Amino acid sequence: MSTSEKREPPPPPPPPPRSNCLGGDVVLRFLLLAASTVAVVVIVTSKQTQVVLAGGIIPFPEYASAQFVDSPAFIYFVVAFSVAGLYAIITILASLFLVCRRIIPANVFLCLASLDAIILGIAASATGAAGGVAYIGWKGNYHTGWGQICYIYDKFCRYVAASLAMALLASVILVLLIILNTSSLYLRAPKL
Q1: Is the separation of the CB atoms in 173 and 28 below 8 Å?
Q2: Would the N or C end of the chain have less CB density within 10 A of its end CB?
Q3: How far apart are CA 118 and CA 6, in angstroms?
Q4: Quick check: 168 and 42 in contact, CB under 8 A?
Q5: In degrees rounded to 5, what are phi and psi of residue 96?
């Protein structure tokens, strides 16, 4: 090679690959919205009124109801999954916007994964709190004098159980979203 020959500069690095996971991201976010909405609607509509015997020496019939506002854990559950549903709506719109873009910055995936982890923490804590109260209602705790109520309020307990099942599904969907976004971020990392 002579010194008079010019060396060609190396070609520019290729643009980051377009993520193939955005379609799955949008679908999972729609599923998160559906699961969160169903969980909230089912527990909010879970009111049941029964005639129970109340009183001391001479019992008398009384109407008593069970509803989600009777427990702070159920109220927290409703608020947490309402927030998760709102978050799902916002991130669905963001994901649809990103599908239309040619190049997606890597920090978008990092931001989505971080926010998904925060919402997962909120959803998991609300599911655990509501699940603990539901378990006490189902089995009771005779050491503390709390009797079971699900033999009286069977419809209420079924609704709460269905709502908890949807909440667990929403939590699993959030875990899948975190895995999807972190794997998209990993695929964009420069290979050594």
Answers
A1: yes
A2: C
A3: 54
A4: no
A5: -65, -35
Query: Is 60 exposed, middle or buried (CB count within 10 Å of its CB: 0-12, 13-18, 19+)?
Result: exposed
pLDDT value at residue 10: 76
pLDDT per residue as tens digits for the range 42-64:
999 988 877 776 766 777 677 77
Exposure class string for 80-97: b at 16+ Cβ within 10 A, else e: bbeebbebbeebbebbee
**What token pair was written down for 101?**
């873009």
**Of 54 and 153, more confident:** 153
- Separation CA 75–CA 68 (nearest Å): 6
For residues 93 and 26, what is the distance between their CA atoms, to the nearest angstrom?
Answer: 9
Q: How far apart are the first and last CA of the chain?
A: 30
Q: What are the tens digits of pLDDT across the range 159-174?
A: 999 999 999 999 999 9
For 127, other C-beta atoms within 10 Å of its C-beta total 22
